[in-house]
């Protein structure tokens, strides 16, 4: 009975047959091989190569490759190395959209393994991928991590014959380990890359902060960042003026970036970084980060690739980190400029405000004018060409201020421009005014502005208003006020080719007047003041009376003489005298109109209506 019991026990245990025992040993060796591949390396590509080789060894395949699903592009993407190939261009070309079909997509979507031993004649396989790796048979299994499908694994070109169902069963048993290993190695790589990016961002931030502490400005910051990232760097302010740049930056690039940023202004305000494409066939050739403090947009930091062949990705973490340093420096520069602008503005306001008179000599020195009297005030307004055509009045920014100051210094003007209201003001001596009157100075400043411009993509034009002569420092305020009026006339009449002198405006002084009482009095004095002075000098002179009667008579000499009760020859003498004083025939051209207007204003004043 004991013997029978032992026999029954043997039958109950059902010891495995030799072939099943061999299969178990094969699987254990495979598990050990895959586990060793995972344990012996932390590099993603090395781990992937070891895992692939281990899986291929199990089924006697020559090569293998892993394809992972990319949720962003909805594609299965081959991972490097694959099928023994490390070349980026070859491996990178093996991307299959889920909509394209094919063997890999079919296995991924159905989560069912596939064997193909005649792939070169099988229409279910994409032949360009078959030819790419000289494939004649393949075994493809799905890869899952938990309940989520992550990709597929291909084993190709079995050495000992066709792939079998046993091969498929073995790889399916190992697929969870393979999928977990690939997923873990990929996650570790991402962690390492994130750590490297963080270290790089901290290094860039530290180098930029050191430059900032040295107080050298935005241009050195751009140079440091350009050296660290190995690409051209551009910094724009909120008005899209190029504040600083480093590297190969030309007018075409600057204009293209400015146009792109203007078109995407809302997007850049709401995102931390923006990929910029500069042409229909180019993608992500530049990245920009907005320079913001709270809701205030200060400008943009742009890093440009060196060309379409530059395949290196721009590290957005580095860009965002650098943007914080550039923002502080940009705001510091702007704050310094605003303080200077306010100080000069307060000084000029005190000069033109009769209730708070400033010392004109101090103002003249603060404006940088060292020339001897007489002087003339000059007001300048800057217009900038817009990226989409046309022009607009440019805001007074540190960029514009530096550009105009440099241009004035280059042409040797004795007196620097100072920010004033929506433009600039300067007090010039007689020599510079003479250059301005013949047009030479305006042309020289425009040429200097173009040649020395820091922003190669920005086109600037100037409008000039020149005030009345200030023969001493007490009249500088009046010269500034009349220069502003001349500038208003230049803008309303669209005069940009030459400076507009206030004393040449004629009746436009009245048409464009902002202070009628003051301007009417000044107009009458300019037109008729010399006539009144001549009558006063020669007691009993009747030149003003003659002029009034002449206008009332429609400039008819005989009628005028009759109304005055004088001989025609006497009237002719008076008319010659009036022509000498007025600088022309009072019955001709614009002078006639000015005389008529001046006399009408005088009559209104006599009637008590001059202030209306």
Account of the protein in words:
This protein is α+β, with helices and mostly antiparallel strands. It folds into 4 domains: 25-190, 2-Layer Sandwich (Beta-Lactamase); 214-334, Beta-Lactamase; 368-505, Alpha-Beta Plaits (2-Layer Sandwich), CATH 3.30.70; 516-606, PucR C-terminal helix-turn-helix domain (Arc Repressor Mutant, subunit A, Orthogonal Bundle). The protein has helices at residues 2-13, 18-39, 44-58, 88-92, 103-110, 127-132, 165-213, 218-229, 251-263, 265-270, 316-352, 360-366, 398-410, 430-437, 440-451, 476-492, 508-511, 516-537, 543-552, 557-564, 568-582, 589-606; strands at 61-70, 75-78, 95-97, 114-116, 138-145, 148-158, 233-237, 242-246, 274-276, 286-293, 296-304, 375-385, 391-393, 418-420, 423-429, 460-470, 500-501. Helix 2 (18-39) runs antiparallel to helix 3 (44-58) and helix 18 (516-537) crosses helix 22. The radius of gyration is 43 Å and the shape is elongated. The N and C termini lie far apart (140 Å). The relative contact order is 0.05. Mean pLDDT is 78; it is low at 1-18 and 268-272.
Topology:
Elements: H1 2-13, H2 18-39, H3 44-58, E1 61-70, E2 75-78, H4 88-92, E3 95-97, H5 103-110, E4 114-116, H6 127-132, E5 138-145, E6 148-158, H7 165-213, H8 218-229, E7 233-237, E8 242-246, H9 251-263, H10 265-270, E9 274-276, E10 286-293, E11 296-304, H11 316-352, H12 360-366, E12 375-385, E13 391-393, H13 398-410, E14 418-420, E15 423-429, H14 430-437, H15 440-451, E16 460-470, H16 476-492, E17 500-501, H17 508-511, H18 516-537, H19 543-552, H20 557-564, H21 568-582, H22 589-606
Parallel strand pairs: 16-17
Antiparallel strand pairs: 1-2, 1-6, 2-3, 4-5, 5-6, 7-8, 7-11, 9-10, 10-11, 12-13, 12-15, 12-16, 14-15
Helix pairs in contact: 2-3, 2-7, 3-7, 7-8, 7-11, 13-15, 18-22, 19-20, 20-21
